[in-house]
């Protein structure tokens, strides 16, 4: 018999792993229970307010029908043989597949499988991706790439749906046109699929905030999150910490040729995954139960302490501002404001051009339907064409204009390491298609209200819809700029500001009276103040004059009103912003 690979995880390492798992879950438990109470307070406030809608265009109810259907060929999980399957992408972004189209169309047709892809990503060139992944493995294992076997070669028109800890999927389309269509659809699915089992608002907000706060406690300052169910997200967070702390040492102990090393590596990963999930499953069940028991205790207290609670929070916000601004202002001036103009210069023109093209496409296609607007059947035909427009390849003429943001955003990673350019580009594409769909729906709803449907009434309705489309497009673009800038700025800003303000905040937290300690979180109020600081800084840059046409940057003295009207008294900050062309 051959030698059995030795396990590089000794008892000391195993104990260290168990302690890391316990520590991460312990931190998360405290953060989740605390965040749940805080978001119960926030929800009570929101429920008491009248909803405010910024946009003019109407939004249609989400469709419950399939998003995309068709035949694809899928590699099996175990035997690795290829099977032709009929795929259906559901409206909730679950992907089901069947042996036949007939089975798929039955009310309770027998599925061959389902794909829940929250947290996954799509690679349109799996052969190149697998090679790069192999290089990464070689680096971790301390091996020369030439020692490794060549990765499996996949046929043309194959895409990979990948997660680094879960089962990957390899799927082949029949032709390049279908391949392009399915790549984009799977990208949409992976970004929009909802992983949490509990979809209640307080839970969703509290869970993601607890994940973020736990990661911050470990020194991971980004605002991104993991995808999947509650248990999967907690497991991924723990595995990240294990990778950071112990896996390098474990890999360093693995010796021998690649086949042996890879076998040991896979064995170690499988064992660690089992350890993590064995700890996470009961821990999450206990946390969920604790919060369920907390809710009926807090809700009566909220009614009793509603007004005093609001007064206390207002006073605490004032004390936080008074205490931290002398620390925050220099960090803001040195690390944030000099770069905001650069970010605007990267993202502004592409989005404006994309929306301009979307306006043109929408108007052109509505005008083309004049010939059909003579009877009910014709109107239905026109509506059918327009309803497909926001999802058609025609919109690519608009959305592709955003792609030029990739390289400049990537270059900004030298300053802001948490930038993920394609994420921002896909958000922009989604906005263009979404608001075009709103324009289509609004046009149809208003045209239906006309006494006589004709080309003349269509032109009148179209003119009004175009005015609202441009209004919404301008507002959505501005909100998009602000969101991107905040995503870019907040991680490094938080990494500097939170440690610097810790000593100032601790005595303020001591001012919260005992009955309110579970309902008031000074760190959450601090986060709100910091968010206000960044929001105001971004707004000032967006409102400032545009760069000169000479292409050279110019400096502009602006006043930042920190905190904003909603947070109480502001603090004036004078900074110099360089706005690049």
List the helices and strands and how they pair.
Elements: H1 11-47, E1 68-75, E2 82-89, E3 95-98, H2 101-104, E4 113-115, E5 121-123, H3 126-141, E6 158-162, E7 169-172, H4 176-192, H5 201-217, H6 230-252, H7 258-335, H8 337-368, H9 376-388, H10 396-399, H11 406-411, H12 421-448, H13 455-509, H14 522-543, E8 554-562, E9 571-579
Antiparallel strand pairs: 1-2, 1-7, 2-3, 3-4, 5-6, 6-7, 8-9
Helix pairs in contact: 1-5, 1-6, 1-7, 6-7, 7-13, 7-14, 8-12, 8-13, 8-14, 12-13, 13-14
Give the integer mean of the pLDDT values.
84
Distance between the termini: 69 Å
Question: Helix amount, in percent?
Answer: 55-70%
pLDDT under 50 segments (min length 5)? Answer: 545-581
Structural class: alpha+beta
Q: In angstroms, what is the radius of gyration?
A: 27 Å
Oligomer: single chain
- Give the ordered list of helices and strands: HEEEHEEHEEHHHHHHHHHHHEE
Number of beta strands: 9
Number of helices: 14
Shape: globular
* Beta-strand proportion: 5-15%
Largest sheet properties: 7 strands, antiparallel
How would you concisely characterize the structure shown here?
This protein has 581 residues and is α+β, with helices and mostly antiparallel strands.
For the structure shown, list the relevant keywords.
disordered C terminus; 61% helix; alpha+beta; seven-stranded antiparallel beta sheet; 581 residues; two-stranded antiparallel ribbon
Walkthrough of the structure:
This protein is an alpha+beta fold and 581 residues long. Helices cover 61% and strands 9% of the residues. The protein has 14 helices and 9 strands. The strands form 2 sheets. It has a 7-stranded antiparallel β-sheet with strand order 4-3-2-1-7-6-5. The longest helix is centred in the middle third of the chain and has 78 residues, at 258-335. Residues 545-581 have low confidence and may be disordered.
